Amino acid sequence: MNEKKRTDAMFHFLYAIIWPFFNLFRPVRTVGRENIPEGPAVICPNHTSAGDPFYVVFAFGWKNPMRCMAKIQLLRIPIIGWFLSKAGVFGVDRGKADMKAVKTSLRYLKEGEKLLMFPEGTRVHEGENVQAKTGAALFATRTGVPLVPVYVPTRKRLFRPNTVVIGEPYKPTFAGRKPTSEELEFIVADLMKRVQALGEGSR
Asked: 3-202 adopts what CATH topology?
């Protein structure tokens, strides 16, 4: 069994274990599942709670395994960190330019995987204004894969459907062979506007 098959198998194993309990307490309703692209893409949701990765994974469904960038501390938790790493979760050190995480992200996309990352880089509480990081824009422009904006509700409800909205995939445009830092900032700002627009449309 190659690495992809092993990783997908662990992803599906954890999915099968976690989904019944998560769905019981925090059921997920998906809008826009038809927008999920075939092949690689950078999946870009807003981030307001620790449970957001689960909402996104379950919104995309069993048939769409993905690789997920997460803070490095999560991977250092005994046992849990091991399972997550085997399921395609990899760490990023937010305190510095983590080239290993960058190379891992680019490798997954070039291998045809879907990459889940939160452009804001941290949880953002309602009313806060945090400038999104340019990583998602960099990965998309470097590999030519689309960005997929996703809206996760900021207020989650117990025992009632929580609507996750998947937007249309798109490829960002830029002028030269490589985007400038200003263009990357513009791309990610536009991305987050698209995410918020999905939220406003779902209310």
From this structure: Glycerol-3-phosphate (1)-acyltransferase (3.40.1130)
